[in-house]
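To fix ideas, we reproduce below a protein record of this kind.
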Amino acid sequence: HTTMVNGLGVLGWGVGGIEAEAAMLGQPVSMLIPQVIGFRLAGQLPEGATATDLVLTVTQMLRKRGVVGMFVEFFGPGLANLALADRATIGNMAPEYGATCGIFPVDQVSLDYLAFTGRSPEAVATVEAYMKEQGLFHTADSPEAAYTDVLSLDLGTVEPSLAGPRRPQDRVRLSDVKPSFLKELEAMTATGRTGKARPVAYGLQSAGGTAAGLAVAEPEVDVAADPAAAALQDGSVVIAAITSCTNTSNPSVMVAAGLLAKKAVEKGLSTKPWVKTSLAPGSKVVTEYYREAGLTPYLDQLGFNLVGYGCTTCIGNSGPLPPAISKTIEERDLVAVAVLSGNRNFEGRINSDVRANYLASPPLVVAYALAGRIDVDLQTEPLGTGKDGQPVYLRDVWPSRKEVAETILRAVRSDMFRDQYRDVFAGDERWNGLDVPAGDTYAWDSGSTYVRQPPYFVDMPAEPAPVEDVRGARVLGVFGDSITTDHISPAGSIKVASPAGKYLIDHGVAPKDFNSYGARRGNHEVMMRGTFANIRIRNRMVPEIEGGFTVHLPDGEPLSIYDAAMRYKAEGVPTVVLAGKEYGTGSSRDWAAKGPLLQGIRAAIAESFERIHRSNLVGMGIVPLEFTGGDTVSSLGLTGHEVIDVEGLAAGIESGFRNGREVTVRARKEDGAVTTFKARVRLDTPQEVQYYRHGGILHYVLRQLLRS
């Protein structure tokens, strides 16, 4: 989320944790000079549209254009109509639209924001003087730059939208959410959670009749003890979360959510009993202006209680659903829904019981909590029935732009920022009371299941061994497009029956104390077992199974990917993975490279890679290879049952790829036939070649330190 700072006109982008560690040890970050895409904004947002709707529209447009590895610069007359918080929202979601960053110029809006949020007059004056002296201060008369390409958007055309059910770029207009979900439901219910055929017709049974005109035959479940569970159906919203740093730092959408809650309560509406609600603001200032505006009681009454300030539902920290709700979803194999105001909605990320996840603005999150289901047209169907017995529609409770602006003017004050951030680094009594071990190096605890010393540098020689071609490798998994770092290395809950769950139980950890993969990322034993353990990942080598499974070859035994990887390592057999487009999209999760390394993976062969994940793979000594000439897994007829050789890699490393970065890949099938194709080595800079030659960036840095 580093890219949020680009909304303020500060150029910045995220790097993988591996690169960050190397930078702290004095290593420079190398990159190719990026292309810059211009994004021209004109007009202003219409009544009813929010900054969230805008950023989802921008994300869809830029993903369609393709901007991986590029900078995006926003310009045009529409800038004057975007508040700094709106710009920061767009900047924050650069990883979602694939760009290295999306930057805005410094202008009067930027200076006003600095002053309002407590920067000193001297600091603001310095920024203004410097930017003007450098010719970087933007005004209406500023000339337009020359860009690689230019996209344009009239802000007046932005419509209320959601994105889902599994990718941020899959924007759906609010009016189309119901039919879009029904279409997605057909695919989701064709095979159930276990991958077995699901004997139900496609469609939804709702209060207004049968959606899509098709009945649903659902098995009987004993839910006598919990009427809320009995009411569940495909499309029920079981999580509604106002969360993430993107939207919860923007007063316009947060105040809109509070005002909508106030109007809903006043009309007698309530949250449906099966919806788990939460409020996790991006700043304590939000709590202050909610209190000042008198909105907190209404949010509390609808269940949007403060749960903390930090990463919650967006990264999979929603916590478990009530047992009766969870059991009903599982037993009836329902497609339950989460609606959240976060950045990311990748498969298996939000909650293991939820299969459809939609991103939405905070006020729409509240609206869907009231409706209780996603298969509703909020523009024509009521949210519920008011205390007067009349239907209440979204338009009846949606706050106007004037109401939002007046509330912000009255309730959001500059001194709130100064008061909350004056001592932000001081910490509370619990933080200051932590027992800190003495000494200059970390004191490893061999009994800890949270932090263990990783094996990366065990028996590391002073000089790297010569690079060898990959030979005799087995395929650990064959994956499709848009495999995210959440698919590769989940951050959410740990299942009892998973390899990581079994490890924790063997080490005396009760399931109630498992916590999450994200919390245990300091323990490589947990994380390598969690690699490719996402419950929604689909390996084409075992198409009948959903989850982290594969087959060990040549015997064909089905195993978890972790168990198969460990068996291959014991046999001395290297492994590779095959994938489609956008491999490694999503969070800059270094464990999505560390885990595969510890599983013995030598190469990832894909149609394209996301920027940070490609960098992380190189940083851990795994070579990223891209198909060339339009080749794909399907066009080459690859099944994952082949034995893979990568030829020319060692010679290329030795020569610095003097003759080009293409290598030859030979895939030997079970019948002896060989498919040969070319792949491009994505070691993009001479420095990355050095990292790979040393087995990874940290090995390279440590050897440099030893020499000095």
